[in-house]
């Protein structure tokens, strides 16, 4: 489904601020894989997502989706097929537009100026009802009136309305209160499983990284240093994972947010 073949990215090359953020990253995902990613501060997790989403071109290597080489595909073209959620719930929706207008844009069928049919409206209501947040009764309200958790759930719905090639979740519940974060995670699990969406999720919560999905990557200094899946992952504890990281990298994990969580 997704193949990253030796991708590298160096910021500010040839200057004092040169930083190799991705160093020959190789990764192969099967359709429906749900991969969690944890790592040190500045390990390259967001840069990896930016590279896949096309926010910049990689310096070397290639990115293939279903065998199609998208290494040089423009970001706006990739964004039609790659859903992405950020930590900030204010990103991903248009606050001055209503829930219905946001969903119409995300659905993308019929064009923005095509009038919504009764069937479209009912579909939106049905999908909103699945979120169990009462949004189906607020469809004419501007999105700016929603809470962070409601906005994040709506963004998730919009990103997966036409199932994407890939879903990139960049700490998408980190800014929410624990109860809302749990709810958004539950919705994430359901939407991803129901549509078999190939998903990558960055988290600083190690427990969550082991519980969600079917595979966990650990990154450090621009490289994937651990790839835990299958039998090895079952029954693995956070301490086991930290010990494996230390044994592999030769030092402990230095992510203040992980250590504080
Ligand atoms: N646009 C940029 N210009 C220069 N340096 C950058 C840029 N983006 C990222 N970096 C650097 O690349 C390295 C990797 O950054 P990245 O944000 O991918 O790390 P991360 O694993 O997401 O970190 P964290 O968990 O701390 O958010 C860091 O040293 C960062 O400062």
TrEMBL record:
UniProt key word ATP-binding:
yes
Q: What is this protein called?
A: ATP-binding cassette domain-containing protein
Question: Keywords of this protein's UniProt record, alphabetized?
Answer: ATP-binding, Cell membrane, Membrane, Nucleotide-binding, Transport
Q: Name one GO cellular component term.
A: plasma membrane
Annotated ranges, domain ABC transporter: 2-246
Where located?
A: Cell membrane
What GO annotations for molecular function exist for this entry? ATP binding; ATP hydrolysis activity
Q: Which Pfam families match?
A: ABC_tran (PF00005)
Q: How does it sit in the membrane?
A: Peripheral membrane protein
Domain of life the protein comes from: Bacteria
- Which Gene3D superfamilies does UniProt cross-reference here? P-loop containing nucleotide triphosphate hydrolases
User: Mainly resides where?
Assistant: membrane
